[in-house]
Specification:
63% of the residues lie in helices and 6% in strands. By secondary structure, the chain is of the alpha/beta class. A hairpin with a 3-residue loop joins strand 1 and strand 2. Helix 3 packs antiparallel against helix 4 (121-154), helix 6 (177-212) runs parallel beside helix 9 (307-333) and helix 25 packs antiparallel against helix 26 (801-835). Residues 1-11 have low confidence and may be disordered.
């Protein structure tokens, strides 16, 4: 062991010093003795009070003692000379030189403290490494070299004897004095080297400890505080290191050099120096050249594990660690600037301007930013000393200030732009007035419109000027910030200010111009009137000319053109006359009547109708007769002829005084009537269903031969005598139309399937495919099957009968093929991953062979369909149908064998009954990987969420869904089959809970209550507390000390409430919440006992309670006369139900039913706690409780499998909505439950259930819950009712439940707040509108309580009323319609008077939502953003939710934006 540097001494120096001190002391003492004796002799009277001893003088001198033996001086001298290495002068001088060289080492150090100014970590490390390296090289070369040189020079003349450096034999060297001399030199050098290292380490320690002195008392978790210029931790000495503090997006505040790196790097140079000190070679090989030495002969130095080294290292690291703590704390204070650092100016501006701020709001924001800039300048220093560190913040400070300046400038630029836009708008309005004033009117109407508009100009200008004044006031805000506007903005502003004056100057000029225009336009008006009268005269003559002219139908084309031209001129004159009348009014002229033109139009209209209809008739008649029939639209003929015939009938009535015109109309009407009978012939000839067979039949029946051709006209058909065969032709056309409909239907069917393919997609990595039949294909197949059946019974089918039957068969086979194909595919998809597992294949060899046979056929079919996927090519195949049937039958056999295999696994581990086949197969197919069972543990156990696997898959802990970990008392390895080691886990779980319970009950007497509840798992704390409570209450009843225990109970509750308000982990908080809920009930029970004066443990008030006892090394539960063993199922840290009087009654009924081996049947409306009470009772018993939601789809087999699992595992089952099961199934279920209960009553360990020998555990029980009043519910058979003890569950005590729940969350005034919550929901249910999605029952109350609990944890110091108010609003406001929001606000304002909910700061959530909405091209409307936030808040307190609202209200988009 080597002494540390501060304990090192130079023993020679110490001896010299002590000797000198002794000599000087005795010398001074002798002188003093002489002086004093001389004075005493000369003046004895002065020292009469003293007597001094006589001085004894040895007159004979020194006499040798008689007992000293004689010896030979020569012999002793020779012996000393033989043994002493300093027997010759050369050895002495050599050692003196070596000692001198070693003493010179005292001035050297491996580290330098002359760092100068503070440096970065890299520079510091580099400097120290260079210093260490340079000194080590000096030692390796110069120091060792000089020592070698001194020894060589001292012994250079010695050629033989003890100090011969040229010795050649090793044994000679070993016995020589030179060997001892060399060892002494080595030890001197090693001592000097060790001294050097320790002195260097001491220097390094001093280098760090002195500047770290202010930070030595800092502890982890310290908070720096708001003062960023605090100098408390500044060292008296200059800092060593410089670090730069900065911020990065996504990282936050950080140092460019990680503070944790200092410890690592300093430790590196520390250890490097020690390691390098071991690299200096010994001098032996260099001096004794004729002897062989190892190449690795090095001087030893101090080791890394030496006591002194460890001490220095720990002190240095401790100093650095304590110094880093305030450095990190200081860095955390800069997290507040991360949002400012990360702010994108553009996004900030968009977010700020999205609310359209006015100038005053912008001014306030600008002032806030200016104050923020000043605050940054004042708060943030440019550098700060903390222990050995100098923090540089100047760059960050400049950037943050520049950010605020940029935001400040951005909003002022925005204000400037907005004001300029408004100036531009005002300028545009002024300029538009100016431009309109300078416009020259082109008509009198326009002139008078302008004059009327000019009267409004003063008022409009005044309004615009008022707006301008407001804008200029906003400009004053810009000026108050000394904002320099762009030149064009400045010019536009002052130009706009001068525009009103220009407008009023322009008005005077415009008035003068209008006077001139009125005079000019009045002259034009007079000329227009004269021209109009002349034009009217001409039109009158033309109309009379056309009316009186001789009517010649043969000239219909020329006459029609003239009539249409005249009609247009008449209407033009009518419009112009109206315009002239308007202008006459404007000029103040007499208004002349132009009614003659209207009379002229009325007079001419019959002639116009006659000639235009005649023109249309002749044109259409020619088309119908002479155009090819393929171009004739036969559907329009009837309508057109009817309209023209109606017009001619009117004309005949209109022209009684014009015989020529009347006759023309009658002639045209007669032509139309002659043509009408031919219309059905044209329609028949144009029928698209007419085929060659029809024309041949026409020729055969009527003797008319018509050959259809593209040039065939109706006129040619008439020439061929078609009119004589009209009846035959019409009948044939009708039949042709029906047949054409059938033909079109068949063609359409064929065309519909032409491009339809089966969707064939590769299935995973199997190398084969699966098909996907779309809804469109299924619908088309169904529709066409019905359509074909209709065609089969059509009387016109004979021409297409063969094709119809062919399609009927195709569609029928295709339907069968697709049905069995999809069914087989579903089976294959289910079994494929199962038999891909080698574990399953190995355990089911027969089924594997059958599956492999089917798989080959399946792959061949899928390969063919992939190559040819057309539906009507693949599906209508009888051979394919048979292959698919064979595959389906094989899969049925395989599935049956698989089910039997799964049944054997479930029998081994009954909890597998609670897993579906898929889940169980997932476990079994990965049995070689035990960790894959983790996702399914929650269904096998009450609350084992996962297991903790250690090294070599050793199972050490069970972990609950809430994150609580409980270590197994005995660990196990997952060896063997999965059902075997899971059974071991179950056994280990129960043993562990029982063992921990025993330890906790012993520990409860040795620890303080508040410490004990946080020291054990939640389940153990609750059960242990109940056991202790039972014992104390019974002791209190017996010893008459119940009042005293009641006070103790209150103190414990207060302690728990105070504890829950403190800083706790999530798991600890859940433990306390559940414990308080149970403890409050315990308190209420004690109060009830005191009020009723109970004095004995047999009193019914106490006897009816659920009591816990520790008997026979385990917990036993008692209620009335019933006794039950504690199940020791791990419950984790789940919450517990508030126990109300209704809950107590339910517990009493259910426990009595279990004692008598019956089931329980809580019944009542929704939300009364039927299922939850059953589950909570199971937690009290520590039994697994499986809740099963019943439906009318349940069958007897599924129920039988479930009952097997219950009986074998000893679990409880709660069948929710039991009366939804079909009555036929319920009858069988009654027999199944009867079998189990009879076996329990007979105390059997095994019993026969549906032909199977099943294990029976006495703890199993069946419970059912029902809502009797709901529609679709079945009345239970009498034999089933008799198996269950009914419990009527009414409306729970909301106020009590809310009070206890709030109390468990740490609320002090829980009773008052609970009353406010329940009153809110009561009033809401009475006053608000009736909506389907409104719920004011127990679930709503629990949700508000959960939200209040979350807020209480986040804000422990917040006012409790404020918390409840916010919880009520957060939970309820999102679901209320707009009209109800006002009513709800009134309700909460009455219940929480003079209290306003605090504004919630959503941080980055609001800005992120807005950014997401804008990215999607939507508008970030405030109300919509609020709805997205409400959706987020609802997800926090709800497991599931729905978005309700009318179409187009944004429900889908709201959900997408939230995600």
């Amino acid at each position: 062991m080597y002494l540390s540097a501060d304990k090192l001494v130079d023993w020679g120096q110490l001896l010299d010093s002590a000797l000198k001190e002794d000599i000087m002391y005795f010398h001074q003492r002798a002188l003093c003795d002489f002086v004093f004796r001389d004075a005493f002799i000369k003046s004895p009277e002065a020292f009469s009070f003293l007597s001094i001893p006589e001085q004894q003088i040895n007159e004979k001198g020194y006499q040798m003692p008689d007992d000293i033996p004689s010896y030979s001086f020569k012999e002793n001298r020779n012996y000393i000379s033989y043994t002493n290495i300093y027997c010759i002068e050369e050895s002495y001088l050599a050692m003196v030189n070596v000692a001198d060289e070693c003493r010179l080492m005292n001035k050297s150090f491996l580290f330098t403290s002359a760092v100068g100014k503070n440096v970065t970590l890299d520079d510091f490390i580099s400097l120290q490494l260079r210093t260490t390296s340079a000194l080590i090289k000096h030692l390796q070369n110069n120091w060792v070299g000089r020592i070698i040189h001194h020894i060589k020079m001292s012994f250079r003349d010695i050629k033989e004897g003890w100090f011969n450096l040229m010795v050649k034999k090793w044994h000679t060297y070993e016995v020589s004095k030179l060997s001892r001399f060399m060892f002494l030199v080595k030890f001197r050098m090693q001592d000097a080297l060790k001294n050097l290292v320790m002195r260097s380490l001491k220097r390094l320690l001093k280098l760090f400890e002195e500047p770290c002195e202010p930070t030595k008392n800092c502890v982890e978790g310290m908070v720096w505080g708001e003062d960023l210029r605090l100098l408390t931790y500044k060292a008296k000495h200059l800092p060593i290191f410089t670090v730069e503090l900065t911020i990065a997006e996504g990282v936050g505040a950080y140092y460019t050099t990680n503070p944790d790196d200092f410890e690592v790097e300093i430790l590196r140079i520390f250890e490097n120096a020690i390691v390098l000190s071991h690299t200096i070679k010994q001098i032996h090989p260099f001096l004794l050249e004729n002897l062989k030495f190892s190449d690795e002969l090095l001087l030893s130095s101090v080791g890394l594990a030496d006591e002194g080294v460890v001490e220095y290292r720990e002190r240095i690291l401790s100093a650095l660690r304590s110094a880093v703590i305030p450095v990190k704390a200081y860095m955390k204070e800069y997290q507040q600037f991360v949002p400012l650092f990360s702010t994108k100016i553009g996004f900030y501006l968009r977010n700020f301007t999205s609310k359209s701020p006015n100038a005053v709001e912008i001014k306030e924001e600008a002032n806030i930013l200016l104050n923020g800039i000043k605050d940054l300048e004042d708060r943030i220093p440019e550098t700060l000393g903390i222990g050995p560190f100098e923090i540089h913040i100047e760059k960050l400070k400049k950037f943050l200030i520049s950010q605020r300046w940029a935001m400040y400038k951005a909003i002022l630029d925005y204000l400037s732009d907005c004001l300029n836009e408004r100036i531009e708008e005002i300028s545009t309005e002024f300029k538009m007035i100016l431009r309109k004033l300078t416009d020259k009117p082109i008509s009198i109407e326009q002139l008078y419109d302008i004059k009327d508009w000019m009267e409004t100009i003063p008022l409009n200008v005044k309004n615009i000027e008022d707006t301008l004044k407001n804008v200029l006031m906003d400009y004053d805000i810009l000026d108050s910030f000394c904002y320099i506007q762009p030149e064009d903005y400045f010019s536009a502003k002052w130009e706009t200010i001068g525009l009103p004056y220009k407008i009023f100057l322009q008005i005077d000029e415009t008035v003068a111009m209008h006077e001139e225009e009125i005079e000019r336009l009045s002259k034009l008006q007079i000329g227009d009137e004269a021209t109009f009268i002349e034009k009217m005269d001409n039109l009158t003559q033309r109309v009379h000319g056309l009316s009186s002219a001789t009517i010649d139908i043969s000239k219909w084309q020329e006459i029609t053109v003239e009539v249409r031209r005249t009609w247009k001129s008449l209407h033009d004159c009518l419009e112009f006359g109206r315009l002239l009348n308007q202008r006459q009014k404007l000029f103040g002229m007499p208004v002349r009547s132009y009614d003659a033109i209207g009379k002229l139009i009325k007079e001419f209209e019959p002639y116009r109708n006659l000639w235009t209809t005649a023109s249309d008739w002749f044109k259409w008649h020619e088309i119908w007769m002479d155009n090819p029939l393929i171009n004739v639209d036969s559907d329009e003929i009837e309508r057109l002829v009817a309209e023209m015939h109606k017009t001619m009938s009117k004309c005949i009535k209109v022209f009684p005084d014009v015989p020529a015109a009347q006759q023309a109309a009658m002639d045209l009407k007669g032509q139309m009537e002659e043509f009408r009978p031919l219309i059905p012939l044209i329609e028949a000839l144009c029928n698209p269903g007419m085929r060659q067979r029809h024309w041949e039949k026409l020729q055969m029946d009527a003797g008319v031969k018509i050959i259809p051709s593209p040039n065939l006209t109706f006129k040619k058909c008439l020439d061929l005598g078609i009119a004589n065969a009209a009846e035959n032709l019409c009948n044939l056309a009708e039949s042709a139309a029906k047949e054409y409909s059938i033909e079109s239907t068949l063609d359409k069917m064929e065309k519909d399937w032409e491009d339809l393919n089966l969707e064939v997609i590769p299935y995973k990595d199997t190398g084969t495919y699966i098909i996907k039949v779309t809804e469109d294909i299924s619908q088309l197949l169904d529709e066409q099957s019905i359509l074909v059946q209709t065609l089969v019974f059509s009387p016109y089918k004979y021409a297409f009968e063969e094709k119809i039957m062919e399609w009927e068969q195709k569609l029928r086979i295709s339907q069968e093929v697709l049905d069995i194909w999809l069914d087989t595919q579903n089976k294959w998809l289910y079994l494929q991953p199962i038999f891909s597992s080698m574990d399953i294949a190995r355990q089911l060899p027969n089924e594997s062979k059958k599956y492999a046979l089917m798989d080959r056929t399946w792959r061949r079919i899928m390969k063919n369909v992939n190559e040819q996927p057309k539906i009507m090519t693949v599906c209508p195949d009888l051979r394919l149908l048979e292959l698919l049937k064979d595959c389906s039958n094989l899969l049925d056999l395989v599935q049956k064998g698989l089910s039997e295999y799964l049944e054997t696994k479930r029998m081994c581990f009954p909890r597998f009954y609670f897993l579906s086949d898929d889940e169980l197969l997932d476990i079994l197919s990965q049995a070689q990987h035990p960790t894959t069972v983790q996702p399914h543990l929650r269904k096998c156990f009450e609350n084992i969420y996962k297991l903790k696997f250690g090294e070599n898959l050793l199972i050490t802990h069970m972990i609950s869904g809430e994150g609580e970990q409980v270590e197994f008392t005995s660990t196990l390895y997952p060896e063997g089959h999965v059902e075997d080691w899971l059974s071991e886990v179950e056994s280990c779980m129960k043993t562990t809970i029982q063992g921990i319970m025993k330890e906790a009950l012993i520990d409860i007497r040795n620890k303080k209550r508040n410490d004990w509840v946080l020291s054990w798992p939640g389940q153990v704390v609750i059960a242990g507390s109940q056991t202790f409570w039972t014992a104390r209450v019974e002791a209190g009843l017996i010893q008459k000390k119940l009042v005293k225990y009641y006070k103790t109970l209150l103190r414990q509750l207060d302690g728990l409430r105070n504890l829950v308000k403190g800083k706790l982990t999530k798991v600890e908080r859940q433990v306390l919440s559940a414990l308080i809920t149970i403890e409050v009930h315990s308190r209420d029970v004690v109060i009830d006992l005191l009020e009723k004066g109970s004095v004995d443990t047999s009193d019914f008030t106490w006897f009816s309670q659920l009591r816990y006892y520790w008997l026979n090394d385990g917990i036993v539960l008692r209620a009335l006369n019933a006794q039950f063993n504690y199940g020791n199922e791990y419950l984790g840290n789940s919450g517990r139900l508030v126990i109300t009087p209704l809950t107590d009654r339910c517990y009493l009924t259910l426990t009595s039913a279990i004692h008598l081996k019956f089931g329980g049947a809580p019944a009542g409306p929704a939300g009364t706690g039927k299922t939850e009470t059953t589950k909570d009772l199971a937690k009290a018993f520590a039994n697994q409780c499986v809740v099963f939601n019943c439906s009318d789809q349940l069958d007897v087999l599924a129920m039988g499998k479930f009952f097997k699992g219950l009986a074998s595992s000893g679990a409880w089952a709660c069948f929710d909505e039991f009366n939804r099961i079909d009555i036929e199934v319920l009858s069988v279920v009654a027999q199944q439950i009867t079998t189990i209960q009879k076996a329990q009553q007979a105390h059997q360990d095994r019993f026969l259930f549906e032909g199977c020998d099943v294990v029976l555990k006495e703890s199993c029980a069946v419970f059912i819950t029902m809502n009797p009043g709901y529609a679709g519910r079945t009345e239970l058979p009498d034999n089933l009712k008799a198996l269950f003890r009914p419990v009527a569950m009414m409306v729970p005590n909301y106020a009590l439940i809310a009070e206890i729940s709030l109390f468990s969350f740490g609320f002090s005034d829980a009773k008052e707040l609970a009353a406010k919550i329940t009153s809110t929901f009561k009033l809401s249910s009475e006053q608000l509108s009736t909506q389907d999605h409104y719920d004011f029952g127990m679930r709503a109350v629990k949700t508000v309580i959960a939200a209040a609990g979350n807020l209480k944890r986040e804000n422990p110091d917040m006012d409790e009323k404020q918390i409840v108010l916010r919880a009520l609003k957060d939970v309820n406001v999102p679901k209320f319609v707009r009209d109800d929001l006002t009513l709800f606000g009134g309700i909460v304002s009455d219940l929480f008077p003079r209290m306003v909910a605090d504004t919630v700061d959503y941080g980055n959530l609001f800005s992120t939502i807005c950014e997401t909405i804008l990215k999607k091209g939507l508008l970030d409307v405030g109300e919509y953003v609020t709805k997205v936030i409400q959706l987020y808040e609802t997800t926090v307190v709800r497991h599931g939710l729905m978005l309700v609202g009318p179409a187009g209200s944004g429900k889908t988009q709201d959900g997408q934006d939230f995600v």
